[in-house]
Amino acid sequence: TCSVAKKELDDLEQWKEEHRPRPIKLVPQRLGGKESEAQARQKQQMMLMQSKYQQKHKREEYVKAKKAAEEAEILKKKAIQREKAERLEVKKRQQEIQRREMFLEDQYYKTNELLNRLDLGLPKSDSCQIADRGPESTAW
Fold it and tell me: What positions belong to coiled-coil segments (predicted)?
């Protein structure tokens, strides 16, 4: 196993040697364009100041966008709650109408039942005789 490890290390060293970066050869040339050093430094200073304002502007835009997103989320939640409340109100109104209909129907049946009982208790020929009995029939 030692000879295998030594062979692998030798192979690694040979591979490193083959793939070693070679020296770079560039033709010398003048850099920096047509500006003088003072102009370049002044331009750098202006760009630095502008970048500060740009960063501040970016931050403000981010805060504004975040607030707008939060506001939109709040409005969305309010709309959902309003819709739920409206549905609940409609449901309550329908239940109230149903309750009223059931009450009126029940009242109608009770009234008919009472009238039927009263009709059975009275003589059919002359119903006014009960009212004209006279003073001796009263218990007072």
Answer: 62-105
Q: Which two tokens stand for residue 121?
A: 């208790």
Identify whether the C-beta of residue 129 lies closer than 8 Å to the C-beta of residue 123: yes
Q: Could you give the CA distance from residue 118 to residue 110 in angstroms, rounded to a whole number?
A: 12
Residue type, 73: E
Element housing 11 (H / E)? helix 2-18
Rounded distance between C-alpha atoms, residue 60 and residue 83, angstroms = 34
Q: Is 14 helix (H, G, I), strand (E, B) or coil?
A: helix
- Would the pTM count as exceeding 0.70? no
Q: Mean pLDDT of residues grouped by 10 in the chain (140 residues)?
A: 91 94 84 80 92 93 97 97 97 96 94 88 54 53
Residue type, 67: K
Query: Could you give the C-alpha distances from 137 to 123, 125, 129, 132, 140, in angstroms and in order?
Result: 18, 21, 12, 10, 9
Our measurement of the distance from residue 89's CA atom to the centroid of its chain's CA atoms, rounded to an integer in Å, reads 22
